[in-house]
Amino acid sequence: MQRPPTILMCQPTYFGIEYEINPWMNVEVAADHAVAEQQWNGLFEHLKSTGIAIELVKPRKGLPDLVFTANAGLVYENRVLVSRFRHPQRQGESPVFRAWFEEHGFEIVDFAPPDQGGGYDFEGAGDALFCGDTLFAGYRMRSDATCHQQIGAILGVRVIPVELVDPRYYHLDTCFCPLSEDEAIWYPPAFDEYGRRAIEGAVANLIEVEQAEAERFACNAVVVGQHVFTNTGCPKLHERLASRGYTTTATPLDEFVKAGGSAKCLTLRLDGEEAAAW
Ligand code: ARG
Fold first, then answer.
1. In this predicted structure, what is the pLDDT of residue 97?
2. pTM (predicted TM-score)
């Protein structure tokens, strides 16, 4: 079944900084709830205006990071590998996302159970992004290197695992964003030498962001057709995207940056990213 272009999101009703599981989070620096709602609505309206459908998963009290639906799982055609979160604080999200996928007609595929050697951490589209027919898979901070091999076998796709070396860029989608089958945005210092070479060898056109814009989550972009959405504060990236024919929109997402997330983390594409060949 080919789904129409659809994004999964979750309203920030219970969003907040209740624990610290990445270097951006500081429980002393609370998110302003009203502003977070406004910013989330801003992103929602911008995305909606492209004509893409948006599905919503119901927010749950006690799961402040459920807004980051990119971490729900990895969708491939009608199959989904539901995430297994590294940190206990987010582990309660897995059953919520699993139930959503089941209720919406997805086929859930699983890793081997932990007692059969499959107890991997895997944080979904946050760490696994298709560029063409290749799945780029980030590991070390949140997802295990070994799980990516399993994913290749389960889904029958080519996987290029890349190690993430900077704790500030703990998910692949904070430092790498495929735009089309042969084009991507990236922040090279987030990878080691091997990872940089692997990406350079596999993606023909790479748009590098500089540190100041990487810190504004420039790489955490949502791509809908030729339209790219990011947090504010990424003007150089937007200029370069415009010169390549993309339309760009900056929308403020600072309250979510306090949790270590931005535009892309707040979305999960259910029909395949623009850059995915399937
Ligand atoms: N606070 C969340 C965490 O640390 C943010 C997740 C951001 N999501 C992403 N796909 N980068 O898990």
1. 98
2. 0.97
